[in-house]
């Protein structure tokens, strides 16, 4: 096995295991077993489980395939926001509401435990919020949304409310919280 | 030590440790050490760490001292909702945004791991949502909120959005997400 391949195998297995089990319930041994590599190889590639966790947070956000929907200038900004959250809603529905959002999970479990992972998670949410803010500002400029509101604050409210809906869907094992979000979050502004 | 006292000590230490550390990062030994009781005494009082966790979820909800604000008929229902969330906001601000909401934390960490704790957490959120729903329905009956909306859905949206704000405050170590919630959540309806 090439070195790079082992690192990738560990990384993918780590993302999958952390997302499914949470951080603390998942050992380095769980990750290397899932990756099919020797346990000792972990530390050739990552300084610690925590370092792997921080790197996974960064990649999880970068990998978001849905961000292109927000940037698609061919669609009116208000409609882009609706289509984006509709696409997120459909994605979460596929997994029986298990797992939830890795960023939210890590944030809740680790923010008082790992300053490294907290910082990476906060940066990922800030980036996500800022992508939404751009579209809100575009919608305001286009006269689609009221422009007396702060685009940054509204974007943050939408994102945090979405995360709360994902949390409740995970707990209730039901799509209802996601559907309620779709019905209430944007309606007062669009 | 009386038996009842030992049980209470373990219970209180468990609530505190789970809230601060999360469930999986906290061992029975951590709890009995914090309680100042012998490790073996744990199993005289609780079947398992999971059983203690489920009982703590129930008590955490029952203990909410702020629920009286929602039931105070001497205050107009719309104002009651505002005062309730203001009080929640102040409470979370006191702890430097550490810990967050125990129900949200357990829900995120354990919903795919412990069906027992998931069920208790879902029931606690359902109860909380229903308390908010009653006040929304009162506000609708009083003409303070639009009555074409489902009170149950709006209550759920408010609660889930609040939980998302608490999560983000815990991650950002900032009261901004809570303040943004206060600014945006009720404004379109009151």
Automatic annotation (TrEMBL), chains A, B:
Pfam hit, one: TetR_C_13
Keywords recorded for this protein, A-Z: DNA-binding, Transcription, Transcription regulation
GO molecular function ontology, one term from the record: DNA binding
Keyword DNA-binding: yes
Membrane-crossing residue ranges in chain numbering: none
The keyword Transcription appears for this protein: yes
Annotation: DNA-binding region: 27-46
Ranges for domain HTH tetR-type: 4-64
PROSITE patterns, sorted: HTH_TETR_2
Protein name: Transcriptional regulator
Organism field: Undibacterium terreum
């Amino acid at each position: 096995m090439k070195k790079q391949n082992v690192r990738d195998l560990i990384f993918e297995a780590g993302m999958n295991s952390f997302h499914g089990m949470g951080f603390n319930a998942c050992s380095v041994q769980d990750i290397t077993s899932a990756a099919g590599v020797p346990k000792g190889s972990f530390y050739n590639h990552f300084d610690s489980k925590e370092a792997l966790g921080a790197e996974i947070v960064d990649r999880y956000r970068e990998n978001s395939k849905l961000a292109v929907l927000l940037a698609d200038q061919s669609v009116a900004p208000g409609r882009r926001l609706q289509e984006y959250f509709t696409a997120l809603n459909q994605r979460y529905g596929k997994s029986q509401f298990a797992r939830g959002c890795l960023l939210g999970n890590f944030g809740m479990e680790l923010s008082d435990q790992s300053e490294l992972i907290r910082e990476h998670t906060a940066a990922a949410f800030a980036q996500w919020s800022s992508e939404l803010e751009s579209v809100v500002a575009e919608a305001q400029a286009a006269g689609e949304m009221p422009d007396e509101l702060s685009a940054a604050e509204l974007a943050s409210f939408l994102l945090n409310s979405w995360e709360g809906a994902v949390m409740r869907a995970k707990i209730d094992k039901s799509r209802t919280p996601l559907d309620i979000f779709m019905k209430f979050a944007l309606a007062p502004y669009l």
